[in-house]
């Protein structure tokens, strides 16, 4: 295995009454003993190694939502307030707990809330604690389904107008995406719920599509000093990502539509893997980001300018051991990826224009004298 990178990787086990005897976990490791298992589900692993041991930054079994937030997301939120880009993403098979981890149950008690609502609350608290700084917060909510981009905050817009581009600093931006300003955490929550509702409605219409689409909730932060002469602006963003189920969708029993869909999903996950493998090996000359919308949008998050944390969700029942091994393998690969995060400080375009206007005025006055 290549050298350790700097992406933080945690594993979270979904609670289950039928935890497989083949799995054993410690605070930072998971062992899967397929020799132990009476399951014959492990077809693709036949004639291969039977005991797999994986090490991570942490392994969370029976962890409450608050603990998961504290250990996997809070440091990233703090970095975003300090001006770095941040990403928290969940990966794992359908039903393993990705959406529970990211969104949680927002209708019930506060205790069930996931990473996203907690990050919103923390972010506003931390920004309000910075005297002398004025912050502008915007949000966007993007869904990628069948290699198409959808704006979850503007569901009635025609699709096809969203485009992935690089901005002048080389950061990836999605042009055309609605990005409303949020003055308060309540407004931010409102947009989160609005986007989630759109997602749920679309899911019903598209036959449980949410497990096959990637959702990226992004909080964009601009910070300026509270003085009229400040010329610098610090711009950072926090991507909170709920990926499509990592299981490969079978193509055999499907009708035409599902077949096409299966191709897209399998491809986007394969391209994600290819990017991670390319990044974790020595020769980083060509990273195939442009092969899919997902890797293109997440270019900063993987191998780029972002402090990134991954949560690998696993469902520890015997029937899911193959998927568990494949999720853990991917997670181990991600640990080898190195990011290069920097504080995103630049000249404030608004102040630059004001400064230039002032200079022009002064020059005109000089000429008139
Ligand atoms: P995914 O998004 O990965 O497909 P979900 O988050 O929808 O999976 O989880 C599947 C089911 O398991 C949901 O009913 C969810 O509430 C439940 N669940 C998942 N993880 C946990 C957990 N840590 N504690 C309690 N319930 C959970
Ligand atoms: Mg889900």
UniProtKB/TrEMBL annotation:
| Location in the cell | Cytoplasm, Cytoskeleton
Q: Which family does it belong to?
A: Belongs to the TRAFAC class myosin-kinesin ATPase superfamily. Kinesin family. KIN-5/BimC subfamily.
Q: What is this protein called?
A: Kinesin-like protein
Entry keywords, A to Z: ATP-binding, Coiled coil, Cytoplasm, Cytoskeleton, Microtubule, Motor protein, Nucleotide-binding
Which part of the entire protein is covered?
Answer: 1 to 369 of 689
Ribosomal protein recorded as keyword: no
GO CC terms for this protein?
microtubule
Domain (Kinesin motor) spans 6-337
Q: Which residues bind ATP?
A: 92-99
């Amino acid at each position: 295995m290549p050298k350790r990178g700097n992406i933080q990787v945690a594993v979270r086990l979904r609670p289950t009454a039928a935890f497989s005897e083949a799995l054993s976990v410690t605070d930072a490791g998971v062992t899967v003993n397929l020799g132990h298992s009476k399951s014959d589900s492990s077809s693709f692993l036949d004639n291969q190694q039977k005991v797999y041991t994986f090490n991570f930054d942490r392994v969370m079994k029976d962890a409450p939502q608050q603990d998961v937030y504290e250990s996997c997301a809070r440091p990233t939120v703090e970095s975003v307030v300090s001006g770095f880009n941040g990403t928290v993403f969940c990966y794992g098979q359908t039903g393993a707990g990705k959406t529970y981890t990211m969104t949680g149950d927002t209708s019930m008690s506060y205790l069930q809330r996931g990473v996203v609502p907690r990050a919103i609350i923390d972010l506003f608290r931390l920004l309000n604690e910075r005297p002398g700084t004025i912050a502008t917060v915007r949000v966007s909510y993007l869904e990628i389904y069948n290699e198409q981009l959808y704006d979850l905050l503007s569901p009635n817009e025609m699709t096809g107008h969203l485009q992935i581009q690089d901005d002048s600093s080389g950061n990836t931006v999605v042009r055309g995406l609605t990005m409303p300003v949020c003055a308060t955490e309540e407004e931010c929550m409102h947009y989160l719920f609005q986007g989630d509702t759109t997602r749920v409605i679309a899911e019903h219409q598209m036959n449980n599509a949410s497990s096959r689409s990637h959702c990226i909730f992004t909080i964009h932060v601009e910070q300026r000093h509270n003085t009229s002469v400040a010329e610098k602006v610090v711009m950072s963003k926090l991507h909170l990502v709920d990926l499509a189920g990592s299981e490969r969708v079978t193509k055999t029993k499907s009708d035409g539509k599902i077949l096409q869909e299966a191709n897209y999903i399998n491809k986007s996950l394969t391209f994600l893997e290819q990017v991670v493998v390319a990044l974790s090996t020595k020769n980083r000359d060509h990273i195939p980001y442009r092969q899919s919308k997902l890797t293109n949008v997440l270019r900063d998050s993987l191998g780029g300018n972002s402090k990134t944390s991954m949560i690998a969700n696993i469902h520890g029942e015997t029937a899911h051991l193959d998927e568990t091994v494949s999720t853990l393998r991917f997670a181990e690969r991600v640990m080898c990826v190195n990011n290069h995060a920097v504080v995103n400080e630049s000249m404030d375009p608004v102040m630059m224009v004001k400064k230039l206007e002032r200079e022009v005025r002064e020059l005109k006055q000089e000429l008139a004298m």
